[in-house]
């Protein structure tokens, strides 16, 4: 197996060069198709190597034709525009495990699930899958800068939680975390205790939140907003300072249409070397 040209659909919305690697899994993760987007200069500058951003929910990142939410992050269009500013990166999309999404992205079990149900707690296994199985596909076959200083992750909702968890627990691999619309409430606040008890936090964190996340559930909507602001304050107490960028949009909703608007600034921040 290897990276192959992306199998575009008639209604695909892909910009630039997108590759796919089919059948990637391990003993705890069902096989799925990884996606790799290459920056515009990749072919014309064969000696150049690039930082890498890993996107969770990878089926929603590049192509609306395969998104389970109809819309997409438009990461390919965003990275194409950023390349014109001189900021280039390889982007890897890791599709979620469908009905196992919550399990894969949650570092802890949800207390409401019975023991026989995989109700969270698979976060560390998912990061091992990313680091030991997915990352080598990029580093061994594409011209990446594989060190932690040039490796970031980004995700939304539960994907935001697992991005933060990765930065806290695997700093030797990742130096940047994009934490968009984090659903801290979904893990009973576990992230707060982990951050509070962590050693000094290295790397950069982009975190954002909308005021209209979870619009059908007012209490949940308020929890999104309040928890994100509380985490901002806690991270500042931990000494992140200028290595934390926080953005709150009172009109922001819980959808790719909101995340794609915030994505350019998030990537500028995570890919900056200053």
Automatic annotation (TrEMBL):
InterPro entries referenced in this protein's UniProt entry, alphabetically: AB_hydrolase_fold, Esterase-like, Mycobacterial_A85_antigen
Superkingdom of this protein's organism: Bacteria
Transmembrane spans: none
Stored Gene3D superfamilies: alpha/beta hydrolase
UniProt xrefs under Pfam families: Esterase
Protein name: Alpha-dextrin endo-1, 6-alpha-glucosidase
Annotated source species: Deinococcus marmoris
